Amino acid sequence: MKRIAILGSTGSIGRQALDILSGTESRRAGLVVHSLLCYGNTRLLEEQAGDHQPSVVAAISPAPGAPRLPGMITGDEAIGAAIEGADLVLNAIVGSAGLEASLECTRRGIRLALANKESLVVGGELLRPAIERGLVVPVDSEHSTIFRCLAGEACPPARIVLTASGGAALGIPRDELPSCGPERILRHPSWNMGPRITVDSSSMVNKAFEVIEARWLFSMPGLDAIEVLIHPGSFVHSMVELADGCYKCLMGSPDMRVPIAYALSWPEMADPGCSSLFRASDDPASWPGLSFSPMDHERYPAFGIVLEAGRTGGTAPCAANAADEVAVKAFLDGRIRFGDIARVLGETLSSHSPAPVDRETLRETDAWARARASSLVGGTE
Ligand code: NDP
Ligand code: MG
Fold it and tell me: Which residues of 223-259 are buried (b: 16+ CB within 10 A; e: fewer)?
């Protein structure tokens, strides 16, 4: 039996994980929902708890008037209670709030199925020992692909190539992009995800985060060994260039349940129900032609800004993430337009003085960058 904690169960990744875990194959494979945690949506949490009968239900801050479940743990105790007794934690919290949960898992030696890429963007250095101990299994589709491609390879990859769909922004004329609002930007062509990552996919902030994420997960010497290519069909989920010049990739329909199921079942690899979910849908004859093109820096100015923060290192990626969280929220609330996201990132980072990383410095940087970015979008944090 493998007892699984689902942090962020009410979000896009969390719901898809529960979809996999409700299958009979999953139960046969011994995968059991141990706990469910959300931020405030206890209405959905209550429904999920009824379906999955977890041992623990937890919410960070239930919305006023939302249901209070019997025995529900809230506030500062919530994350610790949700991961206690778990064999595997799926961290599907959105934002830098996920870092504490990741660190707590690794401190307790619990394996982590990591969707929360911000954990690595903000605190990759702090998670490095856990990665080296094999405690972190990626859920992000590109990184799951690389992880699978490297299985059985003796040498480290010469290069990693991450593919990017281009998000909704790829189909919008470049001169119209800066003034776009959420209704156009949230129409992602190939993936159905939570709102923040959907906006980040269109700005390519997500892809710059994924470069940083890959660097830590696969112990790459630096960001220059990781390239991004735009691949609109999203059929090739990323590639590795091996030391002998051959490329290895994973191909298939874009469906997040594949990497989620892989991470939930690794390393035993008992079938969690994927074969019955996917096999029929994947006929290569129906795939569109494969095309790859280099990053378009004019269309996606935020990509270079965030990548530069990654190159700088220390607290700079933490500042980039916090500024982006504030900017994306302001964009979704209609307070700024799409083009302002890159401006807020650039201005926040140009006034940041990077420092070496420890937990306290990260907390201070996160707070500082939120305040700075908020002042740039005309609000307060
Ligand atoms: P969603 O916005 O759909 O869901 C976020 C989840 O996190 C919800 O359960 C939410 O609870 C919870 N949450 C929000 N804030 C906090 C907090 N401060 N503390 C604890 N829990 C919190 O996000 P996604 O599922 O899209 O993304 C989750 C993570 O996975 C992100 O890091 C994203 O980058 C990554 N990811 C997502 C992919 C996708 O396809 N969606 C693909 C690859 C990576 P509540 O509902 O109560 O607010
Ligand atoms: Mg991804």
Answer: bebbebbbbbbbbbbbbbbbeeeeebbbebbbbbbbb
Q: How far is the CA of 210 from the centre of ligand 2 (A)?
A: 7
pLDDT in tens, 304-332: 999 999 999 999 999 999 999 999 999 99
Which of 197, 217, 370 has most ligand 1 atoms within 8 Å of CB, for mutation? 197
User: Minimal CA–CA distance to 90: which of 257, 320, 252?
Assistant: 257
Evaluate whether 89 touches 318 at the Cβ level (below 8 Å): no
Nearby residues for ligand 2 (ion, Cβ within 5 Å): 140-142
The residues spanned by each domain of the chain are: 2-139+254-282, 159-231+292-372
Q: Give 155 Cα–ligand 1 centroid separation in angstroms.
A: 34
CA of residue 200 to ligand 1 center, whole Å: 13
Which pTM was predicted? 0.96
Is ligand 1 within 6 A of the CB of residue 31? no
2-139+254-282: what fold?
Rossmann fold (3.40.50)
* Domain boundaries 159-231+292-372, CATH class: mainly alpha
Per this entry, what is the length of the chain? 381
Residue 138 has, within 13 A of its CA and on its CB side, a CA count of: 21
